[in-house]
Amino acid sequence: MSIATADPRSSSRRVEHPSVAERSARGKAARAQVPRSGHGEWEPAADRPDPITLLEEQATSRVPELVPIRYGRMAVSPFTFYRGAAYVMASDLAATPRSGFRAQLCGDAHLSNFGAYAAPDRQLVFDLNDFDETLPGPWEWDVKRLAASLEIAGRDRGFARKVRRGVVTAAVGEYRMAMRGFAEMRNLDVWYARLNVDTLLDRVRPIADRAARKRLDRAAAKARRKDRLRALAKLTRMVDNEPRLVSDPPLVVPIEELLPDDDARELHTTIGGLVRDYRTTLPGELRELVEQYRYVDLARKVVGVGSVGTRAWIVLMLGRDNDDPLFLQVKEAQASVLEPFAGGSQYRNHGRRVVEGQRLMQAASDIMLGWIHVKAGIDGQPRDFYVRQLWDSKWSADVDVMDPVGVEAYGRACGWTLARAHARSGDEIEIAAYLGSGDSFDRAIARFSEAYADQNERDHAALLAAIESGDLTAETAL
After folding, report:
1. What percent of the chain has pLDDT over 90?
2. How many C-beta atoms lie closer than 10 Å to residue 265's C-beta?
3. d(CA 461, CA 50)
4. Which residue from 4, 180, 294, 333 lies 20 to 30 Å from 476 (Cα-Cα)?
5. How many whole angstroms from its chain centre is CA 155?
6. What is the pLDDT of residues 289-304, one digit of tens each?
7. Cα→Cα distances 478→222, 251, 313, Å
8. DSSP 3-state assignment of 57?
9. Are 274 and 374 in contact, with CB atoms under 8 Å apart?
């Protein structure tokens, strides 16, 4: 792994190439400065920011009428609160121990942000699939975010404490052992490594019961069907012999329902220019492909939990005929929640920050990934966006129906995947040497996860109290 010695924002920088032995020695030496057992400690700081204040801070830059939907979704359970509280946890992680080694972070590596999608070769792969918060930072932060999510999900499922501890230590142990494996591999082999869904299913089937195997096979089949033609059937209706995006407010709202007629028509006209700007961020051959599609329609869409309130759009384009759609999701990219604690992005456009981080961390990425900057959106404000395909055989695990065996297997897959993602950008030899062959780090992260899950429950209770008192408004049915 090369080590930059100049400003990483510089296009011309001198790079050192220390030996494997030197890198391993650095990793082992870091144990004396930051003991692995120290990662298990967690107590809220005396001056810890109020979590509701942090959520309200985020709300100031979001679509006001959508913020109550976000709070309603976060209020459902401690786990859904956790999904939306990446900023809260980033603030908490800033004060935790760090080994000093950095990697490209997902920034929100909870278990629901892993899943399957179709790689460019059309094979289903399992990988991280959300990069809104991606940024270089301490690799431990992603591990702790994942591990705590498994502890919280286990509580949500009613698993006993011993079972939850086993799930978390298995996932972290998988991360540690995978990183040690990557440290032994050649650089290109690390880059090519990926987890195909068929391989994952082959690993899980022998330890799953009959009902679980059926659920897995149905989920994989459903993912393969969830493509642009399925989106055409589900998300459009015919108007004047041409498909148009459906209206399902407040979750899907066509532009004509958001703006007066003249403004909507003007925006439709300007979309062509934005599509041209987006094309310039694609490789040359893909620019040719996108040029074969014409813009047809636009609608605002509510997505996720933590992302609710940021501006997300569905763009419908058509190719050779009405049965040749291209659905693009154009999603607002604001500053990463990690930036106040890990440093600013090297990219001025946050859409590019997301895309570059995704390409760096994923084994195979959507060919349509790109970005744009809008000088004046429908609210008159400049905004950054990233672009990707809306549906491309995407699937996320339904942890709500998994037994402990299934959750442990899923956690292991997440742990391996996160290690692979970090090994592509961080120094896998240093990190592996720091982690070592024993389970000291695994047990420490399990202790941290329990303590942080307790904190998360207190924060969730604070959200419910704020809603009950009327300080926050929540739409609980959406």
Report:
1. 77
2. 12
3. 12
4. 333
5. 22
6. 999 999 999 999 998 8
7. 23, 8, 18
8. helix
9. yes
